[in-house]
Amino acid sequence: MIESDSHRRGEKLQIRQVAVMVETETSWGRRVIRGIASYADKHTLWHLLIDPRDHEQRSSLPDGWKGHGIIARISTRLQADQIVEKRLPAVNVDDVYGDLPSVGRVITNEGARAELAIEHLLARGFSNFAYFAPPSQRYSNRRWEEFEKAVAQRGFECQTYRPGYRAGRKIKWSEQQRRVNRWLTSLPRPIAVLAVDAYHARQLAEVCHFSSIRVPDEIAILAGDSDELLCEVSTPPLSSISLACERIGYEAAAMIHRMMEGQPPSTKPMTISPHGVVSRQSTDVLAIDDPMIVRALRFIQKHTQRGISVQDVLREVPISRRSLEMQFRSYLGRSPAEEIRRVQLERGRELLGNREMSITEVAMACGFSNATRFGIAFRKSFGTTPRNFRKRLLAD
After folding, report:
1. Boundary of a domain, candidates 266, 283, 300
2. What's the N-to-C CA distance of the chain in angstroms?
């Protein structure tokens, strides 16, 4: 029987003290905390110590704190040492320090993030790719490694920002701008850049603005995570990868609950796949030099909800079916029919986040004749049913 059932029967329960060492100043952190709080509200009785800081505003447990468990985004050695010394059940929601003894982990699936990024950029016709992440102790190299691997698997190379200084060194804003601009100048164009996070994606967009580099026409920018404010106020607004932050928090809370009940942590991290790409102006371009193929792709993007076929595309574009097939394979690595289906399913995945729409309404809105056909195609592409995907999405 879970604790919430006992609580409803009026039995006396111990209120467990759980420290949540996750920052509240970022959209990512607030959403993870919301997921933790959601689990606690549904399944147990905890007092959450949210984002404790020391006198220097560093993430730190208060002196004399007597708790039962810790959920943390461990990003410094000092923080890691303090948590290990406490010898309490602990779960890490980041991968900067991934080798801590007896500490569980719930993290974003970096391979899935990389796949979303490369597929989004390939669909826009790019063949030049880069990764932007100034040296920092706030994130690991896993994101870069997985993106570079995804690019290489498609037969392309990934240009990486290497400014020549170590993480932790303080660099003046003007010097940082010069280094980034020098790197951008060296890149082939047009090029698509995955930035490690929304903050650095916005920094990259600012450098492009000051250097009169057109975004997205010359350089398309995709943020590796979503911060709604930063992405929406950037010029231009930034496309971003939507992470399942609430789900990470929820699963981290479930894991720490099990650990506080005596279950040991898994030796392998639990990985949570991102929701998808939120497309905005910073990648709204087709880096293809064939006007007929650009026209065909624009037609597909605009009219997918009508349930169009390849024949509809051919009526719009004066080109033979064989030429259309060959050019699509050359630029995108897939057929026109596969591109239509990809756009339909991406649209469906977005619409499943709308609580007001039924599965049938979602299917019709993205061009399927009925929910059954939508469900078969969705499962084949994403490995789950639309209903189960929605449950996970809305549980976040």
Report:
1. 283
2. 24
